[in-house]
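Handout, page 2. Input:
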Amino acid sequence: MSTRALIDRLHDLHAINLSRADAHLLCGAVGIGRIKRLTLSDRDVVDDAALEALANNPAASRLETFTAGPTEHVTHLGLAHLASSPHLGQLLSLRFDGTPFDDRAPQALAQASGLGRLRRIELCGTEITDAGIAALARTTALPSLLDVAIKSPHLTVAAWEALVKEAPLAVARSFLASQSLAGSTVDMTPNQGLRGYAKHVGLKASSRLQRRELVEAILSHARGGLGN
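Output:
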């Protein structure tokens, strides 16, 4: 039996976690039609062509979670294919590990036309800067987005400010609660990160405030009252 024939028999699986597979065949296969969670975790198994195949595959319409990496062969062009796909409207979570994206990657996601239900974006091992975070914070193309987690050595407190001041309130609240930006110039320790940021913006917060209370105080200070 051919590789394609084997893959096309995967329609009986609801989830699949593969390391070593032909990603081009898999992502374009009719047989992924019932898969909701797809993980391609072997090093360099995924590239832009595989993402294009997935984006163009009508059978991927039930996919809810996609994870890939580490890989050096995926660029913003691959993400742009996913972002504009007419078949990934059910996708809830998108994660890439060890992928050296630059700012064009979050900018591609910020222009998405087909990811209306996407709730979480996680990009690790990137070269993204504050400008990329700002693009995600300002987008209106991801109305369901709740959580942004990005790791890069180039992020500064300006990335915090973009999310706290410009992102939808639910995103800003989730970000502050989890402190999900990791960068060499940002203190991400559980307490000092929040309190350090509060001090940076001139907020005099009592040391007795619990994390949730501090989050709300920061948001209220940044936005002049929370509103909706």
